[in-house]
């Protein structure tokens, strides 16, 4: 049977980007459906009734939701160019860092949505997470968290190479410098040098523009209630 693969996503979303990159790495052909989060399609609501979020992968009519779950599904369904090591201990390491990194990105999103005390608090959390990844994930001894090639944890970390950079520019702060984060800095270089990533990176300028608007909206709403960008 021909594979019918669809991705419901948002181009600027680091969660969506992970999924696109994984499919590109593996050479899987898919159809991309961009969602307007202010006006979600009935299909999206039907495919992800629990969280109603993108990305959703639909494979031969069957939906898979949550980006890290989707990555594992992709790896198991299209085993070429594996995203996980063979060894059980190494696999647990990749899973550990994937989880840590996926938790860290929520701090970036909160940092971006808020101002004042919460903004500062979340910024500290991002610094701390980046420091721990820098020191403890084994980067420096190898090109990628997964080893010599991009793996699950590296795709999870993709936000550091793209979303973070755009948000830095909007807010006027710089997290990753070669001096302070030499390993992460070279990781970004290695990551972006990979064709499947480089050729499927949204434009930095468009991302900055997008996040500028979003930040404005968040700060306008922030005074009264937590910001949900889709309202
Ligand atoms: N944990 C989810 C997060 C996905 C997520 O937060 N998606 C956002 C866009 S970046 C979304 O769809 N938001 C719509 C909403 O919250 O209603 C994942 O890993 O897939």
Task: Explain the overall architecture.
By secondary structure, the chain is an alpha+beta fold. It has 2 domains: 5-77, Glutaredoxin (3-Layer(aba) Sandwich), CATH 3.40.30.10; 88-215, Glutathione S-transferase Yfyf (Class Pi), Chain A, domain 2. Helices cover 55% and strands 7% of the residues. The chain has 10 helices and 4 strands. Strands 2-1-3-4 form a 4-stranded mixed beta sheet, with helices on one face. Helix 7 (163-171) packs across helix 10 (204-222). The protein starts with a strand and ends in a 9-residue tail after the last helix. It binds glutathione (GSH). Glutathione (GSH) binds at residues 10, 13, 15, 37, 52-55, 66-68, 230.
What features would you highlight for this structure?
231 residues; Glutaredoxin; Glutathione S-transferase Yfyf (Class Pi), Chain A, domain 2; 2 domains; 4-stranded mixed sheet; binds glutathione
Ligand names: glutathione
Q: In the CATH classification, which architecture of the largest domain applies?
A: Up-down Bundle
- N/C terminus separation: 41 Å
Record the strand order, biggest sheet.
Answer: 2-1-3-4
Tally of DSSP β-strands: 4
How many DSSP H or I helices? 10
- The total tally of domains equals 2
The H-and-E topology, N to C, reads as EHEHEEHHHHHHHH
CATH class of the largest domain: Mainly Alpha
| Mean pLDDT value | 95
């Amino acid at each position: 049977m021909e594979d019918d693969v669809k991705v419901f996503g948002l181009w600027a979303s680091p969660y969506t980007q992970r999924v696109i990159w994984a499919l590109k790495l593996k050479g899987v052909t898919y159809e991309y459906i961009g969602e307007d989060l202010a006006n979600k399609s009935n299909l999206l609501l039907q495919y992800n009734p629990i969280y109603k979020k993108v990305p959703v992968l639909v494979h031969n009519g069957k939906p898979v939701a949550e980006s890290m779950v989707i990555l594992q599904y992709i790896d198991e369904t299209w085993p070429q160019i594996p995203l996980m090591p063979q060894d059980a201990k190494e696999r647990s390491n990749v899973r550990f860092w994937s989880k840590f990194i996926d938790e860290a990105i929520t701090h970036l999103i909160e940092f971006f949505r808020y101002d004042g005390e919460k903004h500062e608090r979340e910024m500290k959390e991002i610094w701390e997470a980046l420091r721990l990844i820098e020191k403890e994930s084994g980067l420096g001894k190898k090109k990628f968290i997964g080893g010599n090639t991009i793996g699950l944890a590296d795709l999870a970390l993709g936000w550091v190479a793209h979303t973070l950079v755009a948000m830095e520019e909007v807010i006027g702060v710089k997290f990753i410098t070669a001096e302070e984060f030499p390993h992460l800095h070279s990781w970004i270089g290695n990551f972006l040098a990979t064709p499947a990533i480089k050729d499927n990176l949204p434009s930095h300028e468009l991302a900055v523009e997008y996040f500028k608007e979003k930040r404005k909206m968040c700060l306008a709403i922030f005074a009264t209630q937590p910001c949900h960008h889709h309202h």
